[in-house]
Design a protein that fits this description.
5-stranded parallel sheet, Rossmann fold, globular, single chain, Serine Threonine Protein Phosphatase 5, Tetratricopeptide repeat, 22 helices, mainly alpha
Length: 488
């Protein structure tokens, strides 16, 4: 959808095409004040507001487009559904928008895909599988649907036919690089489930090489020296001017951090079993502040007045209250929160931070086997993952020296062996009552928007602990790097 051929709208569209988001928003707003009947331009403005993380404005713009009778309204409803789900955590409203889109156009693949993903997040396995199957019936070349369908299969269902289906999709001449990466990770997962470890590792390696090539072309390249310098800067900055405990403007936050694939999703689901805790998921609130008011970070922490830090804390709490009305405590589960512990302790001096850990080699392997954002450029090379891991451990050792008991360790491997003995002290450290029924993760009702969605909904199992033993030959160099010199 594009704006009509009008000079003012052409300028707004040009700015949008150049990804100059604030200027494009201003241009569309100016043009629409004079010509508010342009439905397509309201749609484009909605896209920009979504990109700028302004969900309320995006929803309003999309509604204006609908009110003006925009063509293909099902597209607008899908976009509104994504905003409700991803930005506002209002799953019922998101589903309503998606089903409205499907009422208008029953075979609209984007709506079916988003609804399938929503059912997957909710743990509705069979419903999600049916929807992905329906998409594949409508569009056999929808490789995203095939990859997600494959990733949802239980080990017993990872048969030779599924392997062949993925391999055929990989070999299809129309399959692009992004699709090859998606399918490659799915193939690795299926082969791993079948115990075909050498073939699985090869599939994952090819998928990572594909992602790495695309990321480097887009300017994403892991720089070990720059990473070490960042850790040094964070350690020098420490916490800034402590603001004192902010007034109660919203739910009390509980921060979780650690490496990706270290068990943070499992930890959040465990805490979310408590009636006084709401699972917030991977919130963008801290990174947004770091990129805006706190730039250049972390140096700004040393110079920010206490009053400004307190304002940031109040804004954070108000955002939690908006996202999770009525919640008492909310988890902020971004694994990379470990970079922001100095900021967290400046904003909330009494904050408790759950630090999730697991066996280093298992953790690094799990990252290599996961299709992460290309911006996380370390994740596609085993030795870069090892370097990132060592730098993370160096920083966490620093934070422990500063904040001691306020950093609460939760080790994944120990938890799956003896869940009660690990979990109960964590609840105690947070001042929360303990109940053994919290260990039943199948009771979780909140949507899980991570790659761990099925793991946290199944009974606890130990198969991920020691998984690296299946790949001992492929991990020999990484193991040596992680143990010499020994990690503290």
């Amino acid at each position: 959808m594009t704006a009509d051929r009008d000079t003012t709208f052409d300028e707004a569209q040009r700015l949008q095409g150049q990804n100059r988001v604030p200027e494009a928003i201003a241009a569309y707003q100016s043009a629409l004040r004079a010509r508010p009947e342009h439905a397509n331009s309201w749609f484009n403005l909605g896209l920009l507001f979504r990109q700028a993380r302004r969900p309320a404005d995006a929803l309003e713009s999309y509604q204006r487009a609908l009110n003006l009778g925009i063509s293909n309204p099902e597209e607008v409803h899908v976009n509104r559904g994504v905003i409700y789900a991803d930005f506002l955590r209002q799953d019922a409203e998101a589903e309503r928008e998606l089903r409205t889109a499907l009422a208008l156009r029953p075979n609209f693949v984007p709506a079916l895909l988003n609804l399938a993903n929503m059912q997957e997040d909710r743990g509705q396995r069979e419903e999600a599988l049916k929807l992905y199957s329906r998409v594949l019936e409508l569009d056999p070349q929808c490789h995203l649907a095939l990859a997600r369908f494959a990733n949802m299969q239980r080990p017993a269902d990872c048969d030779e036919a599924l392997v062949g289906r993925i391999q055929a999709a990989l070999a299809h001449p129309s399959t692009n690089g992004n699709e090859k990466a998606l399918l490659g990770f799915a193939l690795g997962r299926v082969l791993d489930a079948r115990g075909e470890y050498a073939q699985a590792f090869n599939a994952y390696s090819v998928a990572n090489a594909t992602v790495r090539s695309g990321a480097m072309s887009a300017g994403y390249r892991y720089d070990r020296g720059a990473q070490e310098q960042l850790i040094d800067r964070l350690m020098r900055s420490g916490a800034g001017s402590a603001a004192g405990k902010p007034a109660s403007a919203g739910p009390a936050p509980i921060f979780l951090c650690g490496m990706f694939r270290s068990g943070s999703t499992l930890a959040e689901q465990l805490l979310g079993q408590h009636p006084g805790v709401t699972a917030g998921g991977e919130l963008y609130l801290l990174p947004s502040m770091v990129a805006s008011e706190l730039a250049p970070f972390p140096e700004s922490l040393a110079t920010k007045p206490a009053a400004e830090i307190e304002q940031l804390a109040q804004r954070y709490l108000k955002s939690l209250a908006t996202l999770f009305p009525g919640a008492q405590r909310v988890t902020d589960k971004r694994p990379d929160n470990f970079l922001y512990i100095g900021l967290i302790k400046s904003m909330f001096p009494d904050a408790k931070i759950i630090h999730t850990t697991r066996d280093a080699l298992d953790n690094c392997l799990a990252i290599y086997f996961l299709d992460l954002d290309p911006g996380m450029s370390y994740a596609t090379d085993l030795m870069d993952i090892g370097h990132y891991y060592r730098s993370y451990r160096r920083l966490m050792n620093h934070w422990r020296e500063l904040y001691g008991a306020d950093i609460i360790e939760l080790n994944y491997d120990a938890y799956v062996r003896e869940p009660a003995s690990v979990a109960e002290p964590v609840f105690g450290a947070l001042g929360l009552d303990w109940d053994p029924k919290f260990l039943d993760h199948s009771r979780a009702q909140a949507a899980v928007r991570t790659a761990s969605v099925w793991q946290v909904r199944e009974p606890l199992y130990q198969s991920s602990s020691g998984r690296s033993r299946n790949y001992a030959a492929q991990l020999a160099d990484l193991e040596s790097y992680l143990t010499d010199p020994p990690l503290l």
